[in-house]
Predict the structure.
Amino acid sequence: MSALVQSLRVVGYSARNAAADFAATYTWRSWTFGWVGRMLSQVVFFTLAGRVLGAPDQARSRFIGNAVMTCVVEAMMVVASSVWERRAGTLPLLVASPADLAPVFFGRSLQWIASGVATSSIALLALGPLFGIDWTAVQIPAVVLLQLLTAVGSYCFGLVLGVLVLNAPQLRNIASNVAYLAMMSFCGIQVPVDYWPAPIRLLAAVLPVTYGVRAMTALSAGGPAGAVWRPAAAVLLLGAGWLAAAFVAFRVFAERGRRDGSLEFGQ
Amino acid sequence: MTTVRTMHMAELVRAVRTFAASFRLQCLMMRRSPGDLAVLVTAPFFSLMFLSMTEQADRSALAPYAVAAPVLIAVWSMSLFVAGDLISKERGNGTLEGLVATPASLSVMVLGRICAAVTLSVFAFVETWLVAWLCFGVVVRLPHPLALLATLATTLLAMAGTATMMAAVFVLARSARIFQNTLSYPVYLLAGVLVPVSFLPGWLRPFTRVVFLSWCAGLLRDSLARPDIPDLPGRLTAVLVLGAAGFGAGRLLMRRVLWRVRVLGTLGQA
């Protein structure tokens, strides 16, 4: 129990760094008109692309998928911001401290989840009516909760990727971009998952966003409760699985770094 | 008269040398930095997304749209990335002051480096064409190869010119990354990179005519699909004129910005 409390305390301290990092990156103007404007344009771009190129019967799910993706895109920035610690030279100090690396890194990029959920909420609730998707007041808490789940689940997946590129910092942006573009391609955002061959369907099956989008689409269509909570539970389970994998990966990374001295001098 | 001509000639030779040296430097730097080639890794994913939409909806005739858009996205992203990182990296390395102190024009140096990066980004066309063929069995014909080459070449030049203007703005910016992010999808929408501008609200359409990328998008799609390309020379000229205007504005802006940061002593500060 005390280990859990200690880990949560570390996450809290690290989250304060995340908030400071966010405040140093954006002003409220650059976030609202720069970042949010950009993400809303992305949703409109892909939704209209679907109108020009794609099947008309998927317009609804395509809008929802692309709107939910905005929080996932931002959650995947955990890959880059985890690698910033190497550039800042803090890795050896973190490894030398009594705390595990995983809680530190879990808290260190939480700003992306907060910003991502805010952005995708604006996309779903403000842009939705323009594309024929209306929400009732009762649905709004569920909309926010589903985005939060999807963002956290994807963030945990991003943490695992972050550990993998900690030793190849120059690949941080490629890794996060490829990860979210692969999700946009294969996880039922632009075309149904069934369209793709079996190995790709298998990949989509282990990514939280696949189920997050499914739950949000069912919620917007006013489907039965089971059609919403079952995929939502899958997001939760997969997120927990990726978080466990991230804990193991950070331990292996720290142990290996201690042994071969690559913590400070890795390329 | 002859002396004046000789001086102009000497200036031109110096500019060409600066351009060539910067072009070469950028190529060498990109060889050592795989992260700079990210657009060549991401372009196939854009074509996968667009082509999966057309194929799933049985709209193979729209494949040229799906092939052209990722190329323009790659060219725009690469130039934004290089224009933004170029100044901030020089600033971070502490070499920006040294660069400004040399007799070579900073605008020409920036143009040379961006040209090198943008030229590499055209390989996205080969990638997207191969994705269409290998993943979807769609062979996108090239009915107007010369028009296609001319379109790609003018797009590169116009892009490099416009990016020079963006680099000048980035000298003043606190964080170029915010500008880089902001100027992506809004521009893709405004330029009709994939979605024709007829889908945009009426009041926005006149603005698209001054975005060089909108001319490139139309030309690229026409050179891949249509039986004939209406007013090819006029449209190519429009791309070049807009690109030249961007470079001219970039030079002017760079001169003013550099003067301001020299006076304030903030050249090396973000």
Residues 94 and 216 of chain A are 38 Å apart (CA to CA). Residues 225-260 of chain A form the longest helix (36 residues). Residues 2-265 of chain A form one domain. Chain A has a mean pLDDT of 93.
